[in-house]
Write a structure and sequence with these properties.
alpha+beta; 9 helices; single chain; 13 strands
């Protein structure tokens, strides 16, 4: 009997996978599945030789999104599917959710040639529409003249690179409540985490693939569960092997969608007993569905 093969997709900076993802290798191996860490842009890899290709940590794709999306469309048996990847790697998908009546962070979209008029006051977030790991993102107090100058320079820097810019009000509840991320594996809720505030001020650049995160386990409120279910029901395409829905309380205390991560989210498996095994079971179920 031929042994099933699964590729866990990563990037050249993490050739042995992110530590969190290594936790699923043992339960898959125990089920008789061979697992390879595979760098997405390695031309020597024959993707058709795998029974399932699972996107995990290809976090260097941001500046090469077109190349990455084209690669995904050519990979058979990719999870999540290439159509989902193309849609989810550009945060303009938030407009789709807003149009569907799902509460999202209000966003102004500034293209490379878009004239910029900054709000007169308040705390605001500037970030690129194609991004990962909170890189190239900053928080600005626009009542402060120095911050206004830095915000304008940040936008100009992203626009000069041909990147679509997002301008959003800063949700102050994140400073106290944090961000709640609900994790779904195989279409079912698995666990949740609290992520501490990430943006302390203006963006001056950061080294590595992502900014450091303060992560703890969390039990979501019923309203957060309900909104996450609405979000996933509105996602076009699928089926989804994994999903992460990131929420922050709005001004009224009710949850607001910040992002839905369907391409390469950290799943924080180590924060929940049995989460690695649940993810492995979801992969095994997908393999059984597509022999």
């Amino acid at each position: 009997m031929t042994r099933l093969r699964v590729a866990l997709v990563t990037c050249a900076e993490l050739p042995e996978l992110d530590p969190d993802d290594r936790a699923i290798v043992a339960p898959l191996a125990a089920a008789g599945v061979a697992v390879d860490a595979a760098v997405w842009d390695n031309p020597s890899i024959i993707w058709a030789g795998y029974d399932l290709v699972v996107l995990r940590s290809p976090w260097d794709y941001v500046r090469r999104r077109d190349e990455f999306v084209a690669w995904a469309s050519a990979v058979p048996r990719l999870a999540n599917p290439a159509g989902v990847v193309a849609w989810n790697t550009d945060k303009r998908y938030l407009a789709d959710f807003a149009a569907a009546g799902i509460p999202t962070v209000p966003t102004e979209w500034l293209g490379p040639a878009h004239p910029v008029t900054l709000p007169s006051a308040g705390d605001w977030v500037i970030k690129p529409a194609v991004g990962a790991g909170s890189l190239d993102s900053g928080r600005y107090d626009l009542t402060d003249p120095h911050h206004r100058d830095l915000a304008g320079a940040h936008i100009a820097r992203l626009q000069a690179a041909g990147r679509l810019v997002m301008l959003q009000p800063y949700l102050h509840a994140v400073d106290s409540a944090g961000e709640t991320a609900l994790l779904y594996l195989g279409g079912r809720y698995s666990h949740a985490i609290r992520k501490g505030p990430m943006l302390a001020g203006p963006d001056f650049g950061a080294e590595g693939l992502y900014r450091p995160e303060e992560i703890t386990s969390r039990e979501p409120r019923p309203a957060e569960h309900a909104l996450a279910e609405r979000v996933l029901a509105a996602v076009p395409g699928g089926p989804l092997l994994y999903a992460r829905v990131d929420l922050i309380p709005g001004a009224d205390g009710e949850p607001v969608l910040v992002e839905v991560e369907l391409t390469e989210p950290s799943l924080f498996l180590a924060t929940s007993p049995g989460a690695a095994e649940r993810f492995a079971e979801a992969i095994l179920a997908r393999l059984a569905d597509h022999p």
